[in-house]
TrEMBL record:
Pfam families membership: XG_FTase
Bilayer topology: Single-pass type II membrane protein
Enzyme class: transferase
Species annotation: Carex littledalei
Keyword Glycosyltransferase among UniProt keywords: yes
Identification of the protein by name: Fucosyltransferase
UniProt-listed GO biological process terms: cell wall biogenesis; cell wall organization; xyloglucan biosynthetic process
Length: 535
């Protein structure tokens, strides 16, 4: 081999050992990076290079994108009633994360339980009678957890999935309240039954339950109104209990005791649990030794909890799917690569539009997610590839500026970058059906991306990347209204953050850092106070 550069010839000839070692390390690096590259089976479009290191997966096994997601979904539903259930996978990358057969068997068992105990069954009627009594009993076949929506749509999806995992662990049937903030958003997930409580459900005023409620477990424990001895019989316990796990739950009474084993023993004997939360409280369930083994069997890879359960449970209604498909087919279907950017401004981390725009550009260019613009105008080659950027934000500014930048300039790579945004609602609205539907549609469209840039601590972003099975780039929260440097960093896992952990040592009943108590639960990369699951 002829030496092209003097320096390399010198190095190779004068230090053969080091040269060979260097060659070995370089080949190792190439081998490792080629292992991390998406294979044609897990890339969305085979053969298309993916930028920004968007390759995923810690296992070699993948979940194929067949219509049943390798057994995660059942074939039993009428396809027309919920098109997204069997079609989402056609637009999303196949999951790189293996599913455990135990999780699948748990879901099949749960579906049977739900059918047997769901609303309109004799067993449900029997349990309703118990609810009207003044104590619990161990004589019932069916116990329930009733979830009531709270917070933005991202929070609702995270707490719903957390509640479902709690139901799986405790053999409860999960029901939900039919509230304005949830209507015509999701399909029914369980065959031959419904997850909505009937209108004549005896507990009224579910909206009224809050941190002060005297029916809450925290209040009752704090005021010695409940026997918290794990050996006490069900007949000594009330027929239902309210569990308050909203972001503020650790501030008052003993609501955090929900995450202690001995309290779980007590709560498990109560026939009905009413649960309200805007949190992804799954990492809290991993703190409870009683559930450890089950969780290990269901999720050998801890970081896949939301990814798999979200893909199982959450299917946009046909109205939402219509929004998703009309937008996708109009703007995104023909492009080779899709880059999702989700930009959110929080009151607790204020930042100007200008500053956040600069942060987005700095992040996407430094991390080679988007190309730089070419200061000299040059002709666009005929065969130029086109990549699409999907912007999701309440504001139009980021989209307008990005679009303008790539419209008025060519790029250093010669690629054409098209920029799109489905809506800009300006501010969060409540109980507005179309507003909620647009938000869900945008989360879904983001989840079809090859690369994602999301806002740190945004639950909207969390759901999109975890459903996608992509480790996003987090736009780091502002400090003193300025974008930090570096502007973004890569998530370590595809699971999401529990923003308000209990910070309680159950043994000593004293304050403790939840992020330091068990092996798999540590502080989040994007939100210091929170904790998340790590493998
Ligand atoms: N359509 C749309 N709505 C948004 C967007 N960002 C925030 N919203 C609205 O504001 C709410 C924010 O709550 P959430 O989903 O919990 O996201 P988070 O506040 O970023 O954690 C959403 O549910 C939407 O109602 C966006 O990019 N697109
Ligand atoms: Mg939120």
């Amino acid at each position: 081999m002829k030496c092209q550069k003097k320096s390399s010839c010198t190095i190779a000839s004068s230090r053969p050992l080091q040269f060979l070692l260097g060659l070995f390390i370089a080949s190792l690096l190439i081998w490792v990076s080629s292992k991390n590259r998406p294979t044609s089976s897990n890339a969305w479009i085979p053969g298309v290079p993916v930028r920004g290191g968007s390759t995923e997966g810690t296992t070699t096994a993948t979940v194929s994108n067949d219509r049943l997601l390798d057994g995660l979904l059942l074939p039993d539903f009428d396809e027309q009633s919920c098109l997204s259930r069997y079609q989402s996978m056609l637009y999303r990358k196949a999951s790189s994360y293996a599913l455990s057969s135990y999780l699948i068997s748990k879901l099949r068992t749960y579906e049977q339980l739900h059918k047997k105990c769901g609303p309109n069954t004799p067993l449900f009627q029997k349990s309703l009678q118990q609810l009207k009594s003044n104590h619990s009993t161990d004589q019932l076949e069916c116990n329930y957890v009733l979830w009531s929506p709270l917070g933005g749509i991202g929070n609702r999806m995270l707490s719903l999935v957390s509640t479902f995992l709690y139901a799986l662990l405790t053999n409860r049937v999960m029901l939900i309240q039919q509230a304005a903030d949830i209507s015509d958003l999701f399909c029914e997930p369980f065959p031959g039954s419904t997850w909505y409580i009937p209108p004549d459900f005896p507990i009224k005023n579910l909206e009224g339950y809050n941190i002060h409620s005297q029916n809450s477990y925290g209040y009752m424990v704090s005021h010695n109104l409940i026997n918290d001895d794990p050996n006490s019989p069900p007949s000594a316990l009330p027929p239902f209990v309210y569990v308050h796990l909203r972001y503020n739950y650790a501030q008052k009474d003993l609501h955090t005791r929900f995450f202690c084993e001995s309290d779980q023993e007590v709560i498990n004997k109560i026939n009905w649990v009413l649960l309200k939360s805007d949190n992804y409280f799954v990492p809290g369930l991993f703190m409870i030794p009683k559930y450890e083994q089950e969780l290990e069997r269901m999720f050998p890879l801890k970081e896949t909890v939301f990814h798999h359960l979200g893909r199982y449970l959450l299917h946009p209604s046909n109205s939402v799917w219509g929004l998703v498909m009309r937008f996708h087919n109009s703007y995104l279907a023909k492009t080779k690569e899709r880059i999702g950017i989700q930009a959110r401004i929080f009151l607790w981390a204020p930042i100007s539009i200008d500053e956040l725009y600069k942060q987005i550009v700095a992040c996407t260019q430094q991390e080679l997610i988007l190309p730089e613009i070419n200061p000299k105008q040059s002709l666009v080659p005929n065969e130029a590839t086109t990549s699409a950027v999907l912007v999701a934000s309440l504001h139009a500014d980021f989209y307008e500026r990005l679009k303008d930048m790539y419209y008025t300039h060519t790029t250093t790579t010669g690629e054409i970058i098209s920029v799109y945004q489905p809506s800009h609602e300006e501010k969060q609205q409540f109980e507005q059906q179309l507003h909620n539907q647009k938000a869900l549609a945008e989360i879904w469209l983001l989840s079809f991306s090859d690369v994602l840039v999301t806002t740190a601590a945004s639950t909207f972003g969390y759901v999109s990347y975890s459903l996608a099975g992509i480790k996003p780039w987090f736009l780091v929260s502002s400090k003193d209204q300025k974008a930090p440097d570096p502007p973004c960093h890569r998530a370590v896992t595809i699971d999401v953050c529990f923003h308000s952990p209990p910070n309680l040592n159950c043994k000593t009943r004293s304050k403790a850092d939840t992020g330091k108590l068990v092996r798999h639960v540590r502080h989040c990369e994007d939100f210091e106070d929170g904790v998340k699951l790590f493998d």
